[in-house]
């Protein structure tokens, strides 16, 4: 299928010496170089660097080279000196035959920028061939009655040299009857004629011999000789005469072998043997005798070899008709070979650049020459490539084309192009030649590495082993080679206090991330790492991604019982009235767990009791309550041993007159909940209360030291984990269980945090607090000076 594309017509043109294709160099003029044939190889022809106005080093830098029209050897360019020299001996006769002048066309090709210079080398003839006759002896029959002045044709000699070195003169040996005349043909060739100067007498001399000599114009001249045998004949009145002195025919070059080209005809008025005519070549070269066959009896000239217009476009035949009496006549046959479209266009790549950079628009890719050996429309050509390619053909003079990129290329979209150059002639039928070239696009670092995700989330369980592989980031680069080789690195963290260098590392080659040390969820729940990916291009391109590392909690912290205090000494004592109903709240076990999620969900159970059926503990909130009414038979003191995923001990003491007042009420500063219900704080679990409260969190805090301080604001110790509790209605006073009076001074108590201190950094919320039943003070004096005093807190969450 013929490739589509815009085509450019070209025509055969007369060669102009050293035409520049493209922009001419300053100072360049058309020149003709010449050399004598048979000059020794390596001989100097010209200094091209000087003629082109270029420095010697510039020829090598621009890749200068010499290309001949038919890619024939003969010339060589020395890039070091800029000299054009012969690479071999040149034989003018072998190169051009009889064509004069003998010109070898060549081009000088330069790159960066592209330049094409056309030139010609004239090969001058030397006199290295002598004239030669086709036969060493020729026979001529002449009637004895021929009058003086009669002219007789002689066969001419052949000299392969041209110009003045060709035959210039003919001469014969001295005799009394003949002289020779040198004549000139239309093509400038010399031929001899024998002129009778004195009558012949057969009876006196029946045969004569003379020597015919051909002399060229060389210095020194060369010559060749042949013997002419002249037979004097008895009277033969009429010589054969051709119907036409000149036959002109046209023969298509694709004519088949055996075709009749022409038929010559002569007649003789004599009778008998004197009227019998035979035909022969008066003179024929080797080319004529091997191409045409002459029938001696009929005068038919037939083709015995294929014609080629591009090799020989015309033939001149000299045919002689002879009768039986020795008389003859001559005619000329001019055969013109008609060109037919039998030559396919030729395409010669002079320069090809591959690969080419992807970001180089208007880049010269190839320089090539097209030629068609036919003539007329058969030799006119069009040249095109496919339409869907980012390339463009630019025609130049003398059938040269430049293939250039039509804009910047993108190697990532297409790294290789197969280009079909189609050259078609305008003959009938049209002939075409296709030439395929492959152009590779080289990579330019125009793509930064791209991560598969902009953000990665990795999860690693705490207490991991050091050097644990926790995940992999991946980036790809659409470039090639070193431009696509990705190197990973850790970028400086946004938080300057984050010890990133001791937490994670990354494999620079494959993006694998490793935890350098064992992580602790209770110390660090999450952190962010910025990872960079850079290629190895010049300059290098890079991108980055964010990696969030989430530390997963492991159940590595046992619950810690805050109340009752676990000091390894006597159990905590609670007072229970004898009249307590079933479900009476004796005390509340408070415990915390440093873990999170399900690992921090606590459940409580009673392991051991003096009387198992009397008390019970609620599994979810740690409340110890009476299971039934106390009776007189029940012991006054009961010992309980329980566990909240950890053991605790308490002693319940029955007391008939237990104080039933709520005791002093305090306000406490605790971390604020992060929303309506379900907030995190130091106490777990939360439960619902009636009314408009959303939930209550219960916790017991040991009092570090008692003391009344001024001011109503909640204080926070710098660098510590505690805070202050303040009284809601002033100091406790009056009878046990008495209420505080409105407007009394506000006391404050320092307390210790129960959640490692982290929650104290949040916004605080005021909560209410009560002393436990077993140790409700009657006044602040009872509290003052004491430490490790438990306080029961409740608040809205």
From TrEMBL:
Membrane topology type: Single-pass type I membrane protein
Q: Which GO terms describe its molecular function?
A: calcium ion binding; cell adhesion molecule binding
Report the leader peptide range: 1-26
GO terms for CC?
A: photoreceptor connecting cilium; plasma membrane
The record's InterPro entries line, in alphabetical order, gives:
Cadherin-like_dom (IPR002126), Cadherin-like_sf (IPR015919), Cadherin_CS (IPR020894), Cadherin_N (IPR013164), Protocadherin/Cadherin-CA (IPR050174)
What Pfam families does UniProt report for this protein, alphabetically? Cadherin, Cadherin_2
What are the start and end residues of every segment in region (Disordered)? Answer: 723-756
Where the record annotates domain Cadherin, the positions are 75-133, 134-242, 243-347, 348-451, 452-561
Q: Which PANTHER family match?
A: CADHERIN-87A, PROTOCADHERIN BETA-15
The entry's protein name is Protocadherin beta 15
């Amino acid at each position: 299928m013929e490739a589509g594309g815009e085509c450019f017509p070209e025509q055969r043109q007369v060669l102009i010496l050293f035409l520049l294709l493209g922009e001419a160099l300053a100072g360049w003029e058309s020149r003709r170089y010449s050399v004598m044939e048979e000059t020794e190889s390596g001989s100097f022809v010209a200094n091209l660097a000087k003629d082109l106005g270029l420095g010697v080093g510039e020829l090598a830098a621009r890749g200068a080279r010499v290309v001949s029209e038919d890619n024939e050897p003969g010339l060589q360019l020395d890039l070091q000196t800029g000299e054009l020299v012969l690479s071999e001996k040149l034989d003018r006769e072998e190169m051009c035959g009889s064509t004069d002048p003998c010109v070898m066309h060549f081009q000088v090709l330069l790159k960066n920028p592209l330049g094409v210079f056309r030139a010609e080398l004239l090969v001058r003839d030397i006199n290295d061939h002598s004239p030669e006759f086709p036969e060493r002896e020729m026979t001529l029959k002449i009637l004895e009655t021929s009058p003086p002045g009669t002219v007789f044709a002689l066969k001419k000699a052949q000299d392969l040299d041209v110009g003045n070195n060709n035959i210039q003169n003919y001469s014969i040996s001295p005799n009394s009857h003949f002289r020779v005349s040198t004549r000139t043909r239309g093509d400038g060739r010399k031929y001899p004629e024998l002129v009778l100067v004195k009558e012949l007498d057969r009876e006196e001399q029946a045969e004569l011999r003379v020597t015919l000599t051909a002399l060229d114009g060389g210095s020194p001249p060369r010559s060749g000789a042949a013997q002419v045998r002249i037979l004097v004949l008895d009277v033969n009145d009429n010589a054969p005469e051709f119907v036409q002195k000149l036959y002109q025919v046209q023969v298509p070059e694709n004519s088949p072998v055996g075709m009749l080209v022409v038929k010559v005809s002569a007649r003789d008025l004599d009778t008998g043997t004197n009227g019998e005519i035979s035909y022969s070549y008066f003179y024929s070269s080797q080319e004529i005798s091997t191409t045409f066959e002459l029938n001696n009896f009929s005068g038919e000239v037939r083709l015995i070899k294929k014609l080629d217009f591009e090799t020989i476009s015309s033939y001149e035949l000299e045919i002689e008709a002879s009768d039986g009496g020795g008389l003859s006549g001559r005619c000329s046959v001019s055969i013109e070979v008609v060109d037919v479209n039998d030559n396919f266009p030729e395409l010669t790549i002079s320069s090809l650049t591959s690969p080419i950079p992807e970001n180089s628009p208007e880049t010269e890719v190839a320089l090539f020459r097209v030629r068609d050996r036919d003539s007329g429309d058969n030799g006119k050509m069009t040249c095109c490539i496919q339409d869907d390619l980012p390339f463009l053909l630019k025609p130049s003079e003398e059938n040269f084309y430049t293939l250039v990129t039509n804009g910047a290329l993108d190697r990532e979209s297409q790294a290789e192009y197969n280009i079909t150059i189609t050259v078609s002639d305008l003959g009938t039928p049209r002939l075409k030649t296709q030439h395929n070239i492959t152009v590779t696009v080289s990579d330019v670092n125009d793509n930064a590495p791209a991560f598969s995700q902009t953000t990665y989330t990795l999860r690693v369980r705490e207490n991991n082993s050091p050097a644990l592989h926790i995940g992999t980031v991946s980036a790809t680069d659409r470039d090639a080679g070193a431009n696509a080789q990705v190197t990973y690195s850790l970028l400086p963290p946004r938080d300057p206090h984050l010890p990133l260098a001791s937490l994670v590392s990354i494999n620079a080659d494959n993006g694998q991330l490793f935890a350098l040390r064992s992580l602790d969820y209770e110390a660090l729940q999450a952190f962010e790492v910025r990872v960079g990916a850079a290629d190895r291009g010049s300059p290098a391109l890079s991108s980055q991604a964010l990696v969030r590392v989430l530390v997963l909690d492991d159940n590595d912290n046992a619950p810690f019982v805050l109340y009752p205090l676990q000091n390894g000494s006597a159990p905590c004592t609670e007072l229970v009235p004898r009249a307590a109903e079933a479900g009476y709240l004796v005390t509340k076990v408070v415990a915390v767990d440093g873990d999170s999620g399900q690992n921090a969900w606590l459940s409580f159970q009673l392991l051991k009791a003096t009387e198992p059926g009397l008390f019970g503990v609620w599994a979810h909130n740690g409340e110890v309550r009476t299971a039934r009414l106390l009776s007189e038979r029940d012991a006054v003191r009961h010992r309980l041993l329980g566990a909240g995923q950890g053991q605790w001990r308490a002693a319940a003491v029955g007391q008939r007159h237990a104080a039933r007042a709520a005791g002093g009420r305090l306000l406490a500063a605790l971390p604020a909940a992060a929303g309506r219900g379900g907030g995190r704080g130091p106490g777990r679990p939360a439960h619902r209360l009636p009314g408009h409260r959303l939930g209550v969190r219960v916790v017991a805090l040991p009092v570090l030291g008692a003391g009344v301080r001024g001011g109503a604001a909640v204080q926070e110790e710098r660098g510590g984990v505690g805070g202050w509790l303040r009284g809601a209605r002033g100091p406790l006073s009056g009878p046990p269980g008495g209420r505080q009076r409105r407007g009394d001074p506000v006391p404050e108590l320092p307390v210790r945090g129960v959640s490692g201190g982290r929650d104290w950094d949040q916004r605080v919320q005021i909560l209410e607090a009560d002393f436990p039943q077993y140790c409700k003070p009657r006044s602040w004096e009872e509290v003052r000076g004491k430490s490790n005093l438990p306080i029961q807190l409740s608040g809205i969450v």
